[in-house]
């Protein structure tokens, strides 16, 4: 009998390795056992009951690392402000890196809930992660306060994704896009070109813009969809329909920075004005890098560090101390998320064992924040102020100066929920029909 | 004879430990062990190509992902029973492999690597771009786990289900690599021309190995869809393919236990280190470099070296 | 006129790809290393250039510093981490993958996660008016640099003694060694030159494409596509592949926008199925 017959996992290549297979397997098995033991022993850790544990899920490595870091800073700023206590109980923050992957986000959510025993989850940068963790939160009945960028509309609309254990205090795509559409129409623009990053977030946002713009009386005459990570916008810029009144853009991250520089280099800055939904081109960290290339560009967002309210000025001063940079939308979102969690725990005097009561307390929050006044609708989505900003030189530095504001915008505006539900086509069926108002406003 | 008894003892002990795990480990550890098992199968499936046949694929996520998406589409979109979706997913992965294999097998070495990569990127683009079907990059939540008369919704029961499936798949893989067919594959890896001269239809062996490898990757992909109850285009992306390659190389190509250990270790380390430090990517990179310096044939190679030294 | 702009766009992007792909291809041709760290050389080079430019204000100094620093880094990696695994693909892959991880995290640590852009050097600011549009001078400069490097590499390979050794080494390292060529030194040198070219691409791309976490991996994929389309180990192939990919990418996006995700990968798959060793690769 050759020893090969006893090798359960198959022999290795060279014939010399076939002999004496057992000791090799001993070691292999020892390694497996050691790994398993590590898993097991860690299960003996004792759970402390007293503090309330808050699980924070953010991308801290990879492509969204900066978004995660800024949100985390915002969260910590508010928790520090209240001395890391709420309702008379200490708060313990446990941070996990989702690695910008939905499957990892779910794994980490599981870990926070099952192994660390957190009472509430917060954070989450991408919509894919939000959808995956939302399902986990619903199935495991774990309260989830979305305080990261994830802006997919359907999460807080009545429908299959609805989750009584989730609230979102950040934004949804439609509100930001609709404010841009309303302002654009008032400005006198009637025909615009849209450029949208070709992924779910970009398509939804530009669809929402086009739908609202049609309702007001305008029209999208050309819709361009550069893939995520487009190195060169040359082909799109060269193809722009020159009869447009303006160009409406959704391009986050490095794509936005590139487009801003290339737009001015191709000599278009003074010919076609820009409305930048979500401010990917005129992101705070982009402005100092682009000189005067962005001056004059308009953008739509629910925040700008230039807001004059005392809440915001205090926030900006502290944020700059911690990050040595001006906050984008993420810092204030984290800050408001932490505020919401603390207020809800306070309202229940620290007893959040009844999860439905805790969710009711979350939905009842109402306070002034760096973003402006904050409250939630009955679906758990934030109602807040939307701002139109323009890049202007302030003290010699390009800055996003607020030039118009829309207070108390809810997630459906300028439509009602009933109107939205009566439309025949949604986001998914409309990517190729943005220029067709009849399609966008068709009823069932 | 003692050797044989010893190895049986080890196998029984390891199996016993795996079976008993939910009894003493906490819930999250069991969930993580489930993920380790799934990726162990994924890595072993790739090794059938890389280690046994000598074809390095950088597109293995395609079959993993196609199976995961098949499960999600059938369960979420078509309302098919989740248990039936499982064999369908396996078939879908095998068919994808059967279609891609003739294209990929025209090339060798680095070109094979890149053509498998290109083909998998095409599949990724479809999942990413065809939103009406797949939800694009938002992915599809709410994949229901199968119910075979007992629920798989709790962590321990799904762990046992995974253990059973991965166990059966491993037994089949072992049977394959130890069969005359498996020996022929190893012969092809060492020298295609020699095997050709000996009268073997090399292309057909490679083709069958490719399809089998895709099918086993599909089993892992379907399990992963159930495990997360979610699928997204990340499952199909080149990073997933590259990670599988790294698992195989780190553990030791050309064995089945090696890639399984490599996969388990990487899943464990990614989880463990990323909880300790934001700079887990750096730590993992250093581990890859250091392991290679000391164990160029993978961890299993290191074990081999110890054994050889011990035998002297 | 828009046609001219489209072609210029494609060629400018293609030239950046050529700088990346040339090094990758040379390294593979000589040492058979599929260098996954190549994208890191690009990104780290770009970041070093950015810092030097911020401190000194000189684009030329930024180019020199980045190229030298990264070439040295490349030489160290080749000498101490790759040499020992000569012609052993799997450990080489794992080592270069490890360094890809290491450099990506270190650069995130040092330069942060926001996308960063180099300033366009003073003399190339502004644009050439072309009808309704204007074409940035800097892109014309990129095309010129690309052509210059291509010419220089060709001259080096065909007309210098070192180039002859290189060609001999690519053909057969054993015979080259037997002929008394110091193959070991040649390896380190070529690896360093390849790394330096990637750094050059990183600095040159900085003002157009910007630098950010993940750019290392993105350009690595593009460079692989170029090299494989052109044929591994062939400079001519790298140039042809780079121009083809650059122009395909531009025209695909402009004229077949609904297939923008496929513009690069489908042609690559088709070319490989037709010619399994690329356009100029050895059969």
**Tally of domains of chain C:** 1
Rg estimate of chain A, integer Å: 25 Å
- The count of helical stretches of chain C stands at 11
Task: Give the proportion of residues in helices of chain C.
Answer: over 70%
Extract low-pLDDT stretches of chain A: 1-27, 40-49
Mean pLDDT of chain C: 89
What is the rounded Rg of chain C?
A: 19 Å
- Topology pattern of chain C, helix = H, strand = E: HHHHEEHHHHHHH
* Level-1 CATH class name of chain C: Mainly Alpha
Instruction: Please name the two chains that share the biggest interface, counting residues whose Cβ lies under 8 Å from a Cβ on the partner chain.
Output: A-B, 67 and 78 residues
Using DSSP, what is the number of strands of chain C? Answer: 2
The rounded distance between the terminal residues' Cα atoms of chain A is 75 Å
Placed side by side, the strands forming the largest sheet of chain C appear as: 1-2
Secondary structure class of chain A reads alpha/beta
Strand fraction of chain C equals under 5%
The biggest sheet of chain A amounts to: 9 strands, mixed
Say what oligomer this is: heterotrimer
The number of helical segments of chain A is: 13
Number of DSSP strands of chain A?
15
Report the end-to-end length of chain C measured between terminal Cα atoms: 41 Å
CATH fold-level name of chain C: ABC transporter involved in vitamin B12 uptake, BtuC
Topology readout:
The complex is a heterotrimer of chains A (444), B (312) and C (283).
Chain A: H1 21-41, E1 52-58, H2 65-81, E2 85-86, E3 89-97, H3 102-115, E4 120-123, H4 127-140, E5 144-146, E6 166-168, H5 173-187, E7 191-196, H6 200-216, E8 219-224, H7 234-239, E9 246-250, H8 253-265, E10 274-277, E11 298-301, H9 310-323, H10 330-347, H11 355-363, E12 366-369, E13 372-376, E14 382-394, E15 397-409, H12 417-422, H13 437-441
Parallel strand pairs in A: 1-3, 1-4, 4-5, 5-6, 7-8, 7-9, 9-10, 10-11
Antiparallel strand pairs in A: 2-3, 11-14, 12-13, 13-14, 14-15
Chain B: H1 2-24, H2 27-53, H3 61-77, H4 82-104, H5 109-129, H6 131-134, E1 140-141, H7 155-178, H8 180-190, H9 192-197, H10 202-228, E2 230-231, H11 238-251, H12 257-276, H13 280-294, H14 298-311
Antiparallel strand pairs in B: 1-2
Chain C: H1 2-31, H2 38-56, H3 59-82, H4 89-111, E1 127-130, E2 133-136, H5 137-159, H6 161-171, H7 173-178, H8 183-209, H9 215-230, H10 235-255, H11 265-274
Antiparallel strand pairs in C: 1-2
């Amino acid at each position: 009998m050759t020893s090969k017959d006893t090798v359960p996992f198959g022999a290795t290549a060279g014939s010399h390795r076939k002999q004496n297979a057992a000791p090799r397997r001993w070691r292999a098995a020892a390694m497996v056992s050691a790994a398993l033991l590590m898993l097991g022993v860690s299960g003996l850790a004792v759970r402390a009951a007293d503090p309330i544990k808050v699980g924070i899920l953010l991308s801290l490595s990879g492509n969204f690392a900066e978004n995660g870091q800024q949100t985390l800073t915002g969260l910590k700023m508010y928790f520090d402000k209240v001395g890391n206590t709420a309702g008379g109980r200490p708060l313990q923050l446990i941070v996990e890196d989702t690695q910008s992957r939905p499957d990892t986000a779910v794994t980490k959510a599981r870990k926070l809930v099952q192994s660390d025993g957190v009472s509430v989850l917060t954070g989450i940068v991408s919509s894919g992660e939000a959808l995956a963790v939302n399902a986990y939160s619903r199935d495991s009945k774990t309260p989830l306060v979305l305080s990261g960028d994830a802006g997919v509309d359907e999460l807080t609309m009545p429908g299959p994704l609805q989750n009584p254990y989730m609230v979102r205090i950040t934004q949804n795509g439609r509100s930001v896009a609709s404010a841009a559409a309303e302002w654009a129409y008032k400005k006198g623009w009637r025909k615009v070109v849209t450029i949208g990053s070709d992924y779910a977030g970009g398509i939804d946002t530009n669809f929402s813009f086009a739908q609202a713009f049609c309702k007001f009386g305008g029209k999208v005459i050309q819709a361009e969809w550069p893939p995520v990570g487009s190195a060169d916008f040359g082909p799109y810029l060269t193809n722009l329909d020159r009869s447009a009144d303006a160009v409406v853009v959704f391009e986050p991250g490095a794509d936005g920075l590139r487009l801003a520089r290339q737009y001015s280099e191709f000599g278009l800055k003074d010919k076609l004005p820009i409305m930048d939904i979500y401010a990917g081109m005129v992101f705070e960290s982009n402005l100092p890098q682009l000189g005067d290339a962005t001056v004059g560009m308009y953008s739509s967002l629910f925040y700008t560090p230039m807001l004059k309210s005392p809440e915001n000025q205090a926030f900006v001063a502290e944020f700059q101390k911690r990050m040595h940079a001006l906050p984008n939308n993420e810092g204030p979102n984290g800050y408001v998320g932490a505020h919401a969690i603390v207020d809800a725990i306070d309202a229940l005097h620290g007893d959040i064992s009844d999860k439905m009561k805790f969710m009711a307390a979350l939905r009842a929050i109402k306070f002034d924040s760096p973003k402006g006044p904050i409250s939630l609708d009955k679906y758990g989505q934030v109602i807040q102020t939307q701002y139109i900003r323009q890049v202007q030189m302030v003290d010699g530095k390009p800055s996003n100066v607020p030039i118009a504001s829309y207070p108390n915008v809810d997630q459906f505006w300028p439509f009602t929920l009933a109107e939205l539900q009566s439309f025949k086509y949604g986001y998914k069926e409309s990517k190729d029909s943005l220029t067709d108002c009849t399609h966008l406003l068709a009823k069932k | 004879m003692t050797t044989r008894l010893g190895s049986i003892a080890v196998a029984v002990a390891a199996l016993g430990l795996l079976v008993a795990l939910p009894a003493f480990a906490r819930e999250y550890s069991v969930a993580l062990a489930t993920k380790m098992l799934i990726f162990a199968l994924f890595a072993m499936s790739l090794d059938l190509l890389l280690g046994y046949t000598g074809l390095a694929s950088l597109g293995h996520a395609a079959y993993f992902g196609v199976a995961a998406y098949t499960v999600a589409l059938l369960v979420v979109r078509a309302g098919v029973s989740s248990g039936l979706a499982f064999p369908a997913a396996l078939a879908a992965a095998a068919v994808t492999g059967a279609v891609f294999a003739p294209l990929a097998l025209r090339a060798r070495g680095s070109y094979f690597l890149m053509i498998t990569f290109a083909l998998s990127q095409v599949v990724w683009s479809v999942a990413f771009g065809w939103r009406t079907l797949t939800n694009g990059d938002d992915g599809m939540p709410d994949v229901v786990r199968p119910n075979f008369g007992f629920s798989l919704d709790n962590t321990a029961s799904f762990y046992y289900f995974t253990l059973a499936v991965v166990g059966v798949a491993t037994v089949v893989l072992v049977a394959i690599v130890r069969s005359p067919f498996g020996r022929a594959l190893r012969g092809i890896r060492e020298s295609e021309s020699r095997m050709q001269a000996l009268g073997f239809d090399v292309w057909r062996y490679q083709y069958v190995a490719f399809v089998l490898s895709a099918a086993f990757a599909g089993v892992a992909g379907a399990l992963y869809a159930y495990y997360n109850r979610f699928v997204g285009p990340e499952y199909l992306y080149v990073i997933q393919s590259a990670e599988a390659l790294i698992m195989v190389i780190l553990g030791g190509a050309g064995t089945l236990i090696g890639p399984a250990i490599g996969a388990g270790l990487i899943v464990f380390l990614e989880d463990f280190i990323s909880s300790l430090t934001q700079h887990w990517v750096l730590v993992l990179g250093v581990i890859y470099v250091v392991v290679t310096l000391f164990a160029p044939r993978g961890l299993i190679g290191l074990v081999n070296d110890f054994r050889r030294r011990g035998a002297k | 006129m828009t046609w001219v702009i489209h072609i210029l766009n494609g060629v400018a992007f293609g030239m950046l790809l050529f700088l990346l792909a040339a090094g990758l291809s040379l390294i593979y041709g000589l040492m058979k290393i599929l260098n996954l760290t190549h994208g890191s050389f690009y990104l780290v080079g770009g970041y070093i250039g950015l810092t030097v430019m911020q401190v000194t204000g000189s684009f030329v100094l930024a180019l020199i510093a980045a190229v030298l620093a990264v070439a040295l880094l490349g030489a160290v990696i080749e000498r101490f981490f790759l040499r020992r695994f000569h012609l052993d693909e799997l450990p080489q892959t794992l080592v270069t993958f490890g360094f890809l991880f290491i450099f990506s995290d270190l650069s995130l640590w040092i330069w942060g996660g926001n996308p960063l852009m180099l300033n366009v050097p003073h003399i190339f600011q502004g644009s050439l008016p072309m009808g309704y549009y204007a074409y940035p001078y800097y892109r014309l400069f990129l095309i010129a640099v690309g052509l210059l490097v291509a010419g220089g590499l060709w001259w080096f390979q065909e007309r210098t003694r070192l180039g002859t050794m290189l060609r001999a080494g690519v053909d057969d390292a054993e015979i080259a060694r037997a002929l008394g060529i110091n193959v070991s030194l040649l390896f380190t040198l070529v690896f360093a030159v390849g790394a330096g070219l990637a750094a050059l691409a990183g600095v040159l791309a900085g003002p157009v494409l910007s630098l950010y976490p993940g750019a290392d991996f993105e350009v690595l994929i593009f460079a692989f596509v170029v090299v494989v389309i052109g044929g591994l180990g062939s400079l001519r192939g790298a140039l042809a592949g780079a121009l083809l990919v650059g122009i395909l990418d531009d025209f695909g996006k402009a004229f077949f926008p609904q297939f923008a995700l496929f513009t690069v990968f489908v042609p690559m798959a088709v070319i490989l199925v037709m010619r399994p060793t690329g356009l100029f690769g050895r059969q």
